[in-house]
From TrEMBL:
Family assignment from sequence similarity: Belongs to the carbamoyltransferase HypF family.
Highest taxon above the source species: Bacteria
Stretches assigned to the HypF Kae1-like domain: 45-142
GO molecular function: carboxyl- or carbamoyltransferase activity; zinc ion binding
The name this protein goes by in its record: Hydrogenase maturation protein HypF
């Protein structure tokens, strides 16, 4: 099963999320580098909260990506209420305290607000990650690429907030580990409401 398939999971369209779903995460073994071969080992474990659609949290620790349940889209009040308990369930499984909490760049996403609040409570940094950079990073992880060798990545999944505060879509990115450069993109379109 691919990482992207696992993250997407089964779409949760129900009006509520059960307590059992929040407490039964799924894991995926990763071939993480040994300590000293990259900066990755220096920041683990890390908790990442998903964006808006098909939200799921992920704990990266001990050579595994441990996923919480797919809570569905965060336009659903029940899904929003389940974000923090699902994140806390993953944190409870960590053998060591997390060193950072990652989240989408968009400040208005419920998951971003939960991530920032949890990070403040735990005294760790909250790290905003550009949406399309995260997609390219997921593909690299799926293929065991945890080094900083550069790649070109094309993300065509829709819209994500860019580092310039503008809506981005259809990105061609040069990615080297945690760094990226936006090389190209689809031309912006005017949308009703100015979004």
């Amino acid at each position: 099963m691919s990482l992207s398939t696992l993250v997407a999971g089964v779409e949760a369209r129900a009006s509520s999320v059960s307590a059992d779903a929040v407490s039964t995460p799924t894991g995926l073994a990763l071939s993480l580098p040994s300590i000293g071969t990259s900066g990755l080992a220096d920041v683990l474990p890390v908790l990442a909260l998903g964006a808006w659609f098909k939200h799921a949290a992920c704990l990266l620790a001990d050579g595994r990506a441990q996923f919480g349940p797919n809570l569905g889209d965060l336009d659903n009040a029940d899904a929003c209420r389940a974000v923090e308990p699902a994140a806390l369930a993953l944190l409870a499984q960590a053998a060591a305290p997390v060193r950072a909490i990652a989240h989408d760049l968009h400040p208005d996403f419920h998951s971003t607000r939960v991530a920032c609040a949890l990070a403040a409570r735990l005294g760790v940094p909250a790290i905003g990650v550009q949406h399309h950079h995260a997609h390219v990073g997921a593909v690299l992880a799926e293929h065991g690429r945890f080094d900083a060798r550069p790649v070109l990545g094309l993300a065509l999944d829709g819209v994500g907030l860019g580092t310039d505060g503008q809506a981005w879509g259809g990105e061609l990115l040069w990615v080297a580990g945690g760094e990226f450069v936006r090389l190209g993109h689809l031309r912006p379109l005017r949308l009703p409401g100015g979004d």
